[in-house]
Each structure stands twice: as structure tokens, then as C-alpha cells.
Amino acid sequence: MKLIQLKFLGLIILFLGGCTTVLPPPSDQRPSDEPLYLAKTSFDQGDYGLSEKYFREAVEQNKQSVDAWLGLAASYDRLKRFDLASRSYSVAIELVGRTPAVLNNLGYHFLLQGKLKLARDHFIEAQRKAPESELIANNIEMLDEWKSAHGDLDHASTAARVRHIRH
């Protein structure tokens, strides 16, 4: 019986000897998605100061993350730091170009500043690239409804009235 067990054990060792196990690197050597997750959660909850902090951490961990750059820009928009938002959008454009998502967010960036013509121009460019996007179509419709209800107001009063709108 022992001889059978030893032969069986030998077969298992022989069989397993050809296998290689790939283990993930230790946790301190893996990039973490936690800041990006916390940033998106904070943004969705309307805590733009906290989302800015976490998006900034996500960008520092991965400078190639378009999601992190766009989230950082949107957070800056909500904090009325349009200068910093513009820089973040510029980095996103360098990384992926003028994609529909980038153009839509830029449209919103200009909308929050009360620059309705620039907002519409960016929304239209986004729609040309993604005609099936309901989000972009809704943003154009919202902008058109806003303009028909309020007219073309100056930048300051328009920006004050649209600050409650979400990206």
C-alpha cells in the first residue's frame, strides 16, 4: 500500500513540476485604483473638494489616466477653479485627443463659466463625433432650453444660474 501511495505522490510531483504559478506582486508593488474610486464616489456625492483631492492623487499615481484627468478637471470646474480645469483638460487632450467625452466635458466647462457659444460649439463637435450619444444630445437640448428661457445673458449671471447643473 505504501508503494502505491509513493508512486501516486511521485506522479503528482512529476505532474505539478511542469506547472508554473503566477502570483500577483505584493500589494505594495501594485498600483491602486482606490483614489480613483474614492474620487468618483466623492464627485457623485457632490463633495468636489474631496473629489479633487482624490483625483489629484489618482493623477499622481498614473499620469496616463484620462479618467483621472477628466475627473480632476470636472472637480476644478465645480470648485470654480476654471484655470486649473483648463490645464487638466489640456492634458487629457494630449493623451487621447478631442474625443466626444473630452469635448462634452469641455462644453460643460464653458457652460459653467457662462460662455454659452463656446459650450454649444464643443457640444456640437462632440455630437458630430458621437451622434448616438444621448448624453451629448441632452446637453445640447438643455443648453438650447436655457437660452430660449433666459436669452444670451452676460457670462457672470449665466454662470451663477447654471452652477447647480451636473456634468
Short description:
This protein is mainly α and 167 residues long.
Describe the structure.
- The protein is an all-alpha fold.
- It has 2 domains: 32-96, Tetratricopeptide repeat domain (Serine Threonine Protein Phosphatase 5, Tetratricopeptide repeat), CATH 1.25.40; 98-167, no CATH class.
- 72% of the residues lie in helices and 0% in strands.
- The protein has helices at residues 2-17, 34-44, 48-61, 66-78, 82-96, 100-112, 116-129, 134-150, 155-162.
Shape: globular
Binned strand content: under 5%
Estimated helix fraction: over 70%
User: Helical segment tally?
Assistant: 9
Q: Main sheet, how many strands, which sense, barrel? A: none
Structural class: mainly alpha
Instruction: Provide the residue-averaged pLDDT.
Output: 82
How much is the radius of gyration in Å? Answer: 25 Å
Low-confidence stretches: 3-30
Q: Would you list the SSEs in sequence order as H and E?
A: HHHHHHHHH
Query: How many structural domains?
Result: 2
The N- to C-terminal Cα distance equals: 72 Å
What's the total number of strands?
Answer: 0
